[in-house]
Amino acid sequence: MSKVADMRRFPGFLQLTLLCLLVLYAPLMVVMAYSFNDNTSITIWGGFSLRWYEDVFFGVEAPKFKQAALNSLTIAVMAATCATVIAVSSAVAMMRARRLRGRTASFALINLPLMVPEIVTAVASLIFFSAIGFTTGYATILVAHIVFCIPFAYLPIAARMQSIEDTYEQAAMDLYATPAQAFRLVLLPLMMPGIFSGFLLAFIISLDDFLITNFVKGAGIETLPTAIFGSVKQGIKPNIMAISTLLLLVSVGFVTLSYLASRMGQNKTKT
Amino acid sequence: MLQRTQDTTVAVDIDRVTKNYGAFTALSGVSLDIRDNEFFTLLGPSGCGKTTLLRSIAGFEEISDGAIRLYGDDIAGLPPHQRPVNTVFQQYALFPHMTVAQNVMFGLLRLRKSDSEAQTRCAEVLELVQLSPFAQRYPNQLSGGQQQRVALARALAPKPKLLLLDEPLSALDLKLRQAVRVELKQIQKETGITFIFVTHDQEEALTMSDRIAVMSAGEVQQVGTPRDVYEAPRNRFVADFIGETNLLDVSVTSVADGQALCVLPGGREIICPAAAVVDPGPGHLSVRPERMTLTAPADALLSGRVENHVYLGTDMQVMVRLEDNEVLTLRVQNSDAVSVPDIGTQVGIALEAGAARLLAD
Fold first, then answer.
1. Is A166 within 8 Å of chain B by CB?
2. Where would a tag sit more exposed on chain A, N or C end, judged by fewer CB atoms within 10 A?
3. Does the structure's ipTM exceed the value 0.85?
4. Is A104 at the interface with chain B, CB within 8 A?
C-alpha cells in the first residue's frame, strides 16, 4: 500500500527535483562563486580573490553603498518595529475580543496586501503620497515599508497566538492581575517567540524590497537594493556580486533566526 | 438535617442566577446557599451548567440575571481580579514561562504583598502540597500530579475567601485521582477555606463533599449530603445519575405522610417512603442494586428469571427479567458463602427495609 502512495517512486521524480533545485539555486551559486573572482570580467574565472569585497568597503563606490546600506538598515529596523507593534495589537484584538464585528473581514484586510501585485501597491502608494502632497524621500519609504510589512509580521504572531489558550490570562486575572498586567506579565511573554519571528520576517522583507521603494523614494535617496540596481544599469561589475552575496548572507541568517525562534517557542509550551 | 445546626454562616449566596447565551439558557434561576468552611460540590453531566456557574462566581461569565453574594457583598458586577476568589483550572493553566515559585507568588505580588511576605507564604503553601523541593522547576518539568498540586498551591497562596475547583482531577490517572481526593479533603479541613468543587464524577462527589448540588439542564435538582442524595434521591434524574439504580414502574394507590402504597409488577403491594409530592397513579420506584437479595421464588415480593451475570471482581452483577419483561440489576457480593444461581433459574427478589423509594418524575 505505502509503496503505491510513495511519491519518490514516481518515474522522473528525482530528475524533476534536481531540475527545480538547479533553476532555483544555480544562479545564486554562480553569483557567490564569481564574487570571489580575481578578474574584471564577470564570466571568465581568473582565480580566487577578495578584491571585490575590498572594493565594496573601500572602493570608489563605497560611500554610496555605505549610505544606502545605512538607509536600508534604519528603515528596516523602524518599519519592522512599527509593523510588529501594529501586528501584535491587531492579533490580540482579533483573537481575544469576544464579539468583534467583521473579524473575518479584518483578517482578510490584513492579509490582502500579500496577494495584491506589488507593482499595484507601488503605483498606488506613489499616487497616494503625491495626492496628499507628501514630499517623496526617506519618510515616504518608511511609511510604505511599515504598511507592507504588517501582514508579514502579523502571520507568525497570529499563528503563535492561536496556540495560546485564553485560560492563561484568565488564571492571571483570577490571581488579581488587572487586564493590563495579565497582558504584560503573561500573554506578552508567551507571545514573544511569535513576535520575534514576525519582527525578523518584516525586517528581511523591508531590507530586500526594491519595487515599492523605487517608486516612492524620490530623487537623492537610495536603499541598498535601489543602489545595486542603479549600479547594474551601468553594467554589471563583480562588486555587485560581492554586495549581493553579503545581502544573501544577512537574509539567510535572519530567516534562520526567525525559524529557530518560532520553533523554540513551540518546544517550551509543550508539556 | 443535623448538618444544618453545625455552621450556618452563608459564604456564598447564589440568588436566582440566570445565564443565557442567546436563545440557550445555561442556568435558569439557580439558588444555592454555600456555607462557610464547606466542601461543596456541583455535580452533573456535561452541559448541565455546573462549569458556567463556577465561572460566573469567578467572574469569567457575566450573569444575565440574579445575584451572587460573597459573605453578604454582591460580587456579580466585579471583574475577576477584584473578587477575593481563586480558581484551580481544569488544565491547571500554570504559566509556562515562570517557575513553580513564581507561579505561586503571582497572586501575592499582584495584591502588593512585599517580596519577603510573598516568599514566606509561597514556602508555606508549597510545604502544604509537599512540593518544596520543586520550587525552582518549570511546570513542564513536573508530572501531571505535581502540576495539579502547583495549581492548588497557587490558588491557595493569596488566602482566598473561596476556592473554586473546576474538575481538577480529571486529567489524572485513576490511582493518583484516588490519592488526591483524600489529600484535597485534608487540605480543605486544614485551611478552613470554603471549596466549591465541580465534577461529573459521582464517586468523587460522594467521597469528598460535605454537601452536593446535583444539577441538570441548568437547574439544581437536589442539594444534600452525599448520604442524602444517594439514599434519598428526590427525583428520577438524581437517582439515575448518582450510582446505579433500578427504576421499577409501579402504580401508586395512596400517599400519606411521606409514605406511599404501591403495587409492584407482579401484583404484590409495598409501603415505601415517597421522595416528594407524588400523586396516585403510575410512578417510579428506585431500588439500588446492592439493597436487594436473591431468595427462593415462592412468596417473594418480585420474581423472575436470571438472565445474565457480569463478573465485577468484588461483586457479581445479576440481571433478572421480571414477569412483565422489566430487567432488574442486582449486586451480589462475590464470596464462597453466596452461590449465584445459574442463568435461566427462576428466582425471587427480596428488598431490604427502606431500600425502595418512590420518586418524583
1. no
2. N
3. no
4. no
